[in-house]
Protein 1
Amino acid sequence: MSSIGFGLFKSLVENEVKFSTLNDYQVNEEHFREKEVEAYRFVKEFILEYGTYPRLETIARQIGAVDSFNGLPSEPVEYWLNEVLERKRYSDLRECMLDMRGCLENQEMTQALDIMGSKYIALRESYSARRLASLRDVQREVLLKHDEYQKNPDIPGLSFGFPFLDNISGGAQNGDFIIIVGQTGVGKTYLALKVGFSSHLTGKNVIVLSTEMPNIQAARRVLAMEGRFSTTDLKLGRLSYFGRERANEIIDRGAALEDDRGNYFYLLPGGMFPKVEDFAIVIKELKPDFAIVDGAYLLQGSARQWWEKNMEVAQVLKNLALNEDIPILATYQYGKKDTGKLEGVGGGFAIPQIASIVLSFEFERKEDIGSLQEVQHRVLRLTKGRDGESGSMQIEYNMKATQLVQKRVLSGRVDEEELIETD
């Protein structure tokens, strides 16, 4: 029986190193063998259930291998991780050589090249560890790329960043599973980032997983919102000298404030957490105040059918919000023929049913779809509230200044002190 995997599990448990460290090194179930696989699955399930590691003797008894950890040296986690990775690389290379030999014997050159190319990419990626990234660190990278080329009201929950929505809903509250649904290109990601960053500005810890874009794109969008820059200007190096100075000041000031308050805004790369259970482990270990999944429909579960997988992922996120006692927000797309209809979310009506709050983000006019006009308007509808509340408001979407601003209430209760957000 192989011992490398058990050496890793022993070191993780004894040194109390977070299980999500495996994700940093892109180590998953495929890296383990025989009884190691059973141990890996048991540890994941145990953490998901109890939020902590099982004892080594519990793992050994559960998998029916009582001598699994006997005689293994107590080396650092990094040592065992490297051993596990090297074993997997050797196994993959050997398998690649055997596959290529068969292709060459049959003179299938194209297939042999495809095998070699795909395996080369996978092996090269295995040598680059991808880790949690601080928003401020990635924003500094945004400025390097550029050189080369709102405030929390007194509400029970976390601010959405829009006074009317905060007022009518009470904000994002612990245990909430909130979904934003809209058509492609309407601005769901911008809206989700604004909501998350509004909470962060009040001193809350926020984690954002985007399944559709790398960290640098998400960080660029937040920096553009903070500085009222155009994301295009940031991306293509078009900031003026004074604009770049202001961007740098924003990052420095934000980093200092975060250090002083001891809070974080973390970005998770989607390719690092493709499975909903991996995301759940990170949330359980880091315990943020607010978690956001942009593009939840791209997270993977165990179900094969698309609509079943979406339902499974939504159920996991809902339970995670309840068990960890935090609000979780997820974005979804409408079906092409079901815009504005709850049954068009994720292939069925079930996801909106289990959500605490459903927000529909819509184009105000059909002419705005695909439009490049710098200032447009959107409609944000509270389609389903926690306690049956509903309402809608007009939002100004300023692409030049990367601002989403509440302009006027269209329907729903308006308190006497309800204010319209302005620039």
Protein 2
Amino acid sequence: MKIVNGADRSRPGVFIVDYRDAAGKRHVPSFPTEEEAEAFVERELAHRETGGVNLNCTFEDFLPTCLTLWRDVLELEEGTIENYLQICEGHIFPFFGTTRMRDVTLDNILEFKAHLKTQVTRGGKYKTPLKRGTVLLRGTITKIVGTLSGLFTLAIYKKIRPDNPAARNGRLANKQMQEQDRIQPIAVGKALTKPERDRLLLAARLVVNLTYYVWFCLLAGTGVRPGEARALRWKHIDLDGSQDLHDGVPMLSVLQSFKRKDRLGCTKNKKSRLVEIDPALCALLQAYYDLRQPQPGDFVFSEEASSNTALTGEKLRKPWPTLLALAGITRWVPIYCLRHTYASILIWAGVPTSFVCAQLGHVNTATTEKYYKHWIRSKSNGVLAKLDLARTLVVPPVARPRKGGGDSHGTPRNVNGCP
């Protein structure tokens, strides 16, 4: 690529840029001044460095490049890419419109966050009026801003802009937030009380079939995540404790979990775990097993026509709003609250945090304690009686003077001096 004076090519009064594009095709545009020709060369060179991406592109123009990078370079899952597309089309594109990516500043990001706080959720197909029309949750806003930050990161990679205005938004400079600091305690209202749980399970017994009833009882009685419960197979459940080294304790093995788009994958922390089963729940599962007579490799919660096909999350969540109404629960809580209910009841009852942590599959007990700090008792609640010191300690008798007189041994005082 070079700039040639037009007079050398029988075109006086102009300056010619002689270059070939990526396909090898020759171009010779002309400009009235040498400065304009140099500016064109700079733009063309910058365009080549960015891999053919327009430096003045908008968010919507940059999306095809993002899709290529997500699939080919970062190798993201299709479910994650689909989630990013929904966020872009639903929130980012409508707000920024034709604004160029290189022109977005921190003030624009703060305006975008303020705009998100005024948005309301869309009415889902099976959402109750309690959930429909509420403002976006803080976690949802964080995901949207995180997606926007990811777009700016790719823009830096393509040399469209030198910085990421959405990164570290609201944080102190040069200080990364620790993993434990990101954990927020579960709100008290997100877990059901024991009477609320009992009313909900009673309503489930009356209005849904046995499969759905066992589904809700399993979530409330083990604390497993809904995706993990859907992925359970009968060979993962040991109802008599005879498998492996269970020592006669009924257990279920959590090995997989259903992700978005009904994709079967690993658990949240990518580790398997064993979960103890309550005797009452074990009896219910045994009755359910005797009734269906499944194969070991069949899903526990499967379609009636095919035991090899797990019930979808949409079907299993469909009766949930009705059960909340029948149980007299006026606040909206998702089906995931049964996991919080299980953990909060155990912790409030004084069960060791280490056991609850193992049941839930948390990385460490610090995570469990931070999530459920509202249910950790600060007083002994009668636990000190388990020291059983009454058998060992002997309290010696202490002589006390009587109110009516007498010495310390209780002998009456002779007031008149007579023996």
Protein 3
Amino acid sequence: MKKAQIFGAIIASFFLSFGLTEVFNPVVHADSNKEIVFWNPFTGPDGTSMQKLVNEYNKTNPEYKVKNVSLTEADMYSKIPTIVNSKKGIPDLQIVHVERIKDYVNNGLLDNYNPYLDDFSDINKSNYVPEAWNNGAYKGKRYGVPLDIHTTFMYYNKGLVKKYAPHALDDNIVTFDEIKAAGEKSQKDGITGLGLTWWKPNFLSLYGQLGGQLTKDGKNPNLNNQTSRKVLRIYKGLYDQKITSQDGQDPMQLFLTNKEIFFPEGIWMNNQIKESDVKYGVTNAAQLSDDPDKMVNWSSSHQFVLLKQPKRDKAKTEATLKFLSWVRTNSLEWAKAGQNPATLAITKDKEYRKMQQSFLLTDKTEQESLKIFNYRYNGYLADYLDRYAYDSVFGKTSISSYLNKLQNTVQDEVDAQMTD
């Protein structure tokens, strides 16, 4: 090995040994003062779609071009507090999930848009899906401008529905009772009625249908209650009767191999499912009632935010809003990624209206069913639900113990923040 190579290896080893990996994973800065550095968590196919959208904007020859920087979600969120507090290398534009905005504001991580909105009259509530727009505001100020509103709905196998639940989709609402009835018939043929997929949206959607509130005072969690117990009992009842996929089974694989009738998942999974041979359709998430006015479809939103800067550049910030204004009327590329853009302008696009997820926005009742569970400490709730998921449904712990631990875990985190 050449001496230079040996020396380089020693230096690299030194930095890695002392945790100085930032040297090898540097923060991306603007190449010039006329460039908007845009951080987002879009990798894979989503990242490709976002890069295409940015490229389209840059082709319009704006004074400030956008530099797209895609980071893994975990890496991006870990960097944000550090980089804001360091006051160096802060990106000009940032995407975060809407549920993080309240906590970020309270921790001094965001600037608001209010000083600039008078010059961008098209960025207003009448031009966006209300649920996405409303949740981007906090304490009377605008901190988020929505890119999209992404939802967990339900895929269904057309052939299996025809055989085991021929009338369940007559009203485009599939109830838990209809799923149970279909599953009782199908299990004799080795067909699963309902896939147990990502627990957080499944839990919250049903919790919302039952009128559950995550907090009563905006701070303390309200999670160990009769409503959450009913949610768990409903799912456990279906699991115990083998209506649902079982512990250890892959619900997506069951669906893709025509072994499952109903498959709750995000709209963003549609492009992947399209690549299979399964003949399927899409509908609302499973509902307790067939009353359309009582529907709840769990949703979230990617929002454009401005990370706090020690001295904000007015010209660059205005250029940033020009990009957001352009995105509002040029979101088709994002829809092609399987997303629902939050701009209402997209609902008039003929190509978009042919997309399977579009019914959630083009129909007013469907649009009103979209619910963002915007609790300030949502992150702690999500961490628990993702970690322990279906443990009480699978019988690994009791419902009482599961909910008691959920309540105490989130409460402890809230109390810890209050004493910081």
Protein 4
Amino acid sequence: MGIPFKGRTLVGIPRDTKLYSPFSDTSQDVYRLALKLDSELAEGLLLQQNAAFMQRDLALARNASNRTLAANGVTLTGRSIRDQHDQWTDFIYQAEPVWKVKTGPLDHTILGGFQFQMDLLYTRRKTANLLNITNIYHDPVVPETNMKNLTWVPNFNRNSHLLDYALYLQDQIAIGSQWKWRGGLRWDHFDSYDKDRVAPYEHQLYNDKFSWNVGLAYQPIPQTSSYGGISKSYLSILTSEAAMGAALVPESGLQYELGNRSQFLNGMIRTHLAVFQTYRKNFLITVGTNTEPIGEQMTQGLEFDFSSEPLPGWVLWANYGYTTTELMKLSPADPSAGKGHSAQGVPENAGALWTTYEIQGGTFKGFGGGGGFVYKGGVFVDTLNTQKLPQFVTGDLVVFYRTPHADFQVNVKNVSNATYYFA
């Protein structure tokens, strides 16, 4: 039904209330194929080749999320719907020679690589305004009954492509038995093109970007290791949401991370603790009616994972994450817009607890089941941080049967029938 707010507060209506168009629908077909070939060219020299193909066909009719309550507090206004069709083709090929060699007291693992990625997108969209829903509290009536009687406005009908050619080199050096150092460089050439038949326009953009990473790990004893790393990366953007779907500057990221991996009781208990800080630049945000790559955001936090197998077949797993976000830029004209606010859809606290048991022998070997809980803290749904969804806890169950050649699994979500919202 969507997430209607009255000012800063969620509207208190039953969760089975339907405020969306009765013909809203989404269908998606995804086809994937992946190939992998490893060849040993010489002693200590391995060539790894990977290729993957994906075809996605998406058709959707969906209500837009910019609706509001009128001054009377009961009428839903600003309603609209979009009809969209996407055809997305993705192909990626990687060739990576891995060379293990020793120079004096140092053991090197050198990874080189060439990558080619091609994304082709054909997308078209049209939108239509809808009549108000007079009263959302008492037997709300959705006025529209079919798509034929609506007045449609075409938004775009375009072809986009994004080509990425990359070369990279990384060296991991083992210094004795306790220290490992890693350093790498990568060059990407992005070729992006976008042509729209509605606007109409035609854009092409070329970008050459260099990224890098460095890291250091220390393992004083076999049961524990600590590590740290810094990396600079670039992500090409291809989307059907922005005014220019492909001819956009790449998003960049700078990340710092420190962590520790340990095991206890002869490996029965394993833990992983990490703290991080990430700076994103040029990610997509909505400015007025357009989506543009101008966003800047700082994210920092910690993650903790715990896993254990107290008895053969019995697995316990838990994790917790604490994350804070700070928006640093949201508008090309006003540098202070949204600055200091939290990002949309990111909970400050999140965690999960899960356990399963698999029968280890006899007639029912391979059968098992389990369950667990998922917690997600409240999240903001707007960049001004005026509207926030509440925290929630859900419980899930699973039953499975595992064989050496195939797995069969049935999941039951939200067995407690809890009411929750997501953005």
